[in-house]
């Protein structure tokens, strides 16, 4: 690795390798904090040093380093952005494949940070649009355009209900229509994987939310029925 070309968010090329060596020697919280703000700017911008550091972080994450796993996950979630480092990202293929195993092992332990790690794994699988928005289905809303009449439909999946509606900023969500969740056999390949992983790990609320998100909604305006996930993904899938 030619670190002389791997600048971080400050344009420095020498600080990140020093910090990586430091956290490998000892679990230094201050060093981890500095690595975090040098490798990721404002939560969504990465740099050449971010990808250069990724294999090191994955190796430490495999040794059950929580800060390494969290920082590696944050970098992977940013890889769909306009960072201009796609050649470096391609060189991280082996590290990302290893990270998939690290995250899957972590999820099987049913950790307290399950949703965050689940979203990291979703990004590793390349479903960046779901990684960015998937919540715990306690208070989730998705905006989709009806494919038939183009009206904006609010999809609500939470403890207050699971419905499609037209959002009125004075009246709230009006003309609600119940969602129809997909059965496991009806789920798409992505939806099936999300659902099966959540069920495997005992995350039943998450699994139920996925079934609704990948199910069908009725447009309150024209009464047509459409697949929620298909319409949301078609509008929000990033261009790599």
What does this structure look like?
A hairpin with a 6-residue loop joins β7 (216-218) and β8 (225-227). The relative contact order is 0.10. The longest helix has 16 residues, at 93-108. A 4-stranded antiparallel beta sheet has the order 3-4-5-6, covered by helices on one side. Strands 1-2 form a two-stranded antiparallel ribbon. The chain has a two-stranded antiparallel ribbon with strand order 7-8. It has helices at 15-25, 29-39, 48-62, 66-77, 86-90, 93-108, 114-124, 128-133, 189-200, 204-213, 228-236, and strands spanning 40-41, 45-46, 139-145, 152-158, 161-168, 172-178, 216-218, 225-227. Helix content is 49%, strand content 16%. The protein has 2 domains: 3-132; 139-236, no CATH class. The protein is built from 11 helices and 8 strands. It has 240 residues and is of the alpha+beta class. α4 (66-77) crosses α7 (114-124) and α9 runs antiparallel to α10 (204-213).
Gist of the model:
It is built from eleven helices and eight strands. The chain is α+β, with helices and mostly antiparallel strands. The strands form three sheets. It has a four-stranded antiparallel β-sheet with strand order 3-4-5-6, with helices on one face.
């Amino acid at each position: 690795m030619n670190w002389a070309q791997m600048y971080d968010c400050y344009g420095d090329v020498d600080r990140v390798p020093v910090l990586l060596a430091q956290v490998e020697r000892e679990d230094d919280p201050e060093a981890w904090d500095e690595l975090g703000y040098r490798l990721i700017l404002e939560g969504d911008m990465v740099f050449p040093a971010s990808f250069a550091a990724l294999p090191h972080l994955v190796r430490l994450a495999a040794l059950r380093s929580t800060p390494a796993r969290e920082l590696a996950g944050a970098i992977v979630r940013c890889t769909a952005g306009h960072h201009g480092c796609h050649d470096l990202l391609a060189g991280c293929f082996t590290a990302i494949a290893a990270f998939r195993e690290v995250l899957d092992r972590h999820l099987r332990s049913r950790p307290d940070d399950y949703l965050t790690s689940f979203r990291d794994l979703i990004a590793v699988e390349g479903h960046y649009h779901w990684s960015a928005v998937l919540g715990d289905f306690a208070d989730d809303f998705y905006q989709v355009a009806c494919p038939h009449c183009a009206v904006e439909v609010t999809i609500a999946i939470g403890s207050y209900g699971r419905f499609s509606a037209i959002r009125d900023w004075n009246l709230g969500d009006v003309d609600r229509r119940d969602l129809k969740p997909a059965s496991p056999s009806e789920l798409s390949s992505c939806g099936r994987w999300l659902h099966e992983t959540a069920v495997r790990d005992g995350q039943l609320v998450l699994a139920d939310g996925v079934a609704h998100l990948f199910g069908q909604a009725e447009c309150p305006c024209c009464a047509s029925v459409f697949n929620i996930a298909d319409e949301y993904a078609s509008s929000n899938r990033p261009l790599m």
